Every structure is written in structure tokens, then in C-alpha cells.
Amino acid sequence: MNKIDALLDVLSKIYQILVLVYNSKYHGSLVFDEDPQMDRQEVKDYLGISESTYKRKVKEGVLKPQKLPGGDKYYKSQLLGEFKESRRRGRV
Q1: pTM of the entire structure?
Q2: Of 2, 55, 87, 89, which residue has the fewest beta carbons closer than 10 angstroms?
């Protein structure tokens, strides 16, 4: 792991801690207004995965969508770990 990846990892952990502290103190949920909600297609494009990979990850419980009448929805902050894995594999 090079220095930039290590720095990005530390910064993402700091961000997660700040989100937890801020939301537990003021809102009780883990979503900022700046945290965009993404639909199924946006998630596949963001992670660089196919429809079959998406379905497999949902079935395995790696991706946990919010089931809403308009379809599956995610918050971008929920996808951080999967985004790192996609970047590691060279998909994005």
C-alpha cells in the first residue's frame, strides 16, 4: 500500500468517525445532506460492476439496498468499502 492509499484510508476513517459523532449528537441517523442517494444504475456505474455482479453482491449481503417504491436506493457513504475494492481490482 503506497502513501497516498494509506492517507486516503486514514482520511476516510476520520470522516466516518466525524459522521458518527455529528449524527449521533444532532440527528440520530448516519446521513448528511451532502451524501447523495444513488439508484441501482448509478451504483453499478460508480462501482464499475455488471448487473450479475450487482445481484450477486446483494444476495451475499455485501450491498444492502434500501427497498423503496422507486427501486433500490443507496447512500454514497455506504459504498465506500466496495468502491475501494473496485479501485483495487482496477474497475474504476
Answers
A1: 0.56
A2: 2
